[in-house]
Amino acid sequence: MRKIFIIIIELISVVYATAQNKSLYQLQQEFVNLRFGMFIHFNMPTYFNEDWPDPDADPMLFNPVKLDCRQWATAAKTAKMSYGCLTTKHHSGFCIWNTQTTDYSVMSSPLKRDVVKEFVEAFRAEGLQVMLYYSILDMHARLRPHRIVPAHIEMIKQQLRELLTNYGEISALIIDGWDAPWSRISYDEIPFEDIYRFVKSIQPNCLVMDLNAAKYPAEALFYTDIKSYEQGAGQHISKESNRLPALSCFPLQANWFWKESFPTTEVKKAEQIVYDNIIPMGNVYCNFILNVAPNREGLIDKNALKALKEIGKLWKNNDQQPLLPETEKPIISSNMAKNQPAESSWSSDYAIMDFANDDNFNTCWNSNANVKTPWYTVTFEREKPFNMIVVTDRMDDGLQEYRLEYRVNGTWKIIYEGKAPVEHRVKIHRFKEVWGDAVRITILKASTTPSIAEFGVYCERE
Questions:
Q1: What is the pLDDT of residue 462?
Q2: What b-and-e string marks burial along 139-171, b requiring 16 or more CB atoms within 10 Å of the CB?
Q3: Of the candidates 423, 430, 383, 376, which has an alpha carbon nearest to the alpha carbon of residue 403?
Q4: Counting beta carbons within 10 angstroms of the beta carbon of residue 10, is it exposed (0 to 12), middle (13 to 18) or buried (19 or more)?
Q5: Distance from the Cα of residue 255 to its chain's centroid
Q6: Residues of the chain with pLDDT > 90: what percent?
Q7: Given phi > 0 = left and psi -120 to 50 = alpha, else beta, which region is 42?
Q8: What is the pTM of this model?
Q9: From CA 307, how far away is CA 273, in angstroms rounded?
Q10: Strand ranges (DSSP E) for 95-212?
Q11: Backbone phi and psi for residue 439, each to the nearest 5 degrees, phi listed first
Q12: 137, 130, 152: which is closest to 182 by C-alpha?
């Protein structure tokens, strides 16, 4: 009897673990199915008339005397939203939760209340899921490019541990200020893979999203579980051809954070939100998140509340979401080939080999049209381990057949030879770890003169 009891307990444990730890594909599909949510930019910038306030502004300025997260949640519900996402810390570094990492927080303000706690409780009470926004760039902590020290990375981990430990299940962590042209904090200075795996070690079902991953090609997931598009920054998803789980964001008002003009300024029309965003984006696996900025009292203005009600009346959330296509798992480690010495067969004019590993997908190495069997090589200063090569073509189906090799002890060994695995631009090759001091691609067949936008070599941890 005791033996049967133990077996039953073990089976229950297996079922529970399976239910708890979902596959990334399942999490991505669930995210797409959420369709529509509320982004809430509410932080120290709320008390300035600009989105980037003084990073040393007095915490006493943060004083939402009528703060009511239940009003936010009710408003989201009236718009038929399914989740909310709050800016826990923006670029100026002010934390609106009870953190032990810094005094620059809401606990040093007149409010002295944990806004994140009140937010998650209010939204869950309405049956809505919760996500959290977190900025890597932290001007108050002087966490900025070329000045990052180990203590900064430890602070990031401690803050994320608090956010992912003290507030229950977080569906997604939306990260900002990382690998953006305006923040200039690279995935090498603060290693993306380290932070990514750290988040997953605490909450395996929490999606990790980088708002700035739009600089990478739309055909693969580079440094994010969900492809993101910020419309205000000119990032627009293809409503015809997108095949990746995605997020598009846009503010209901004129800016992300509340401004003094908001109560008397017209907000965006419900028709625009529903017919230009929610519906067509949902048809191509894209979740739409609409930003609503609470005012300095901690409440959503009347004109915004009215717009949210109109959206809820207009949008009928009864469509069956399309099944998300299976896709390669995200690329999360640093590109070892970036800016390393490169050589190639004869290039076309100025489009020389250095353009294929410059971390810029808008530049290319172009083979000279007279070369019958073009090749391209990246060399390291010593032998290194790697287990993935990513070739980003300049155009879809340009590179049709090729050979990938690595050099070890002066000898070239083949990793792959044959047809490109996909017809779109990004060709991802994962394989058992090898060691080498150079990697080479030899192009055997192409639909046009060969051109490579980026050649990446990676070593992801198992």
A1: 82
A2: bbbebbeeebeeebbebbbebbebbbeebeebb
A3: 376
A4: exposed
A5: 21
A6: 88
A7: beta
A8: 0.92
A9: 10
A10: 129-135, 172-176, 207-210
A11: -135, 140
A12: 137
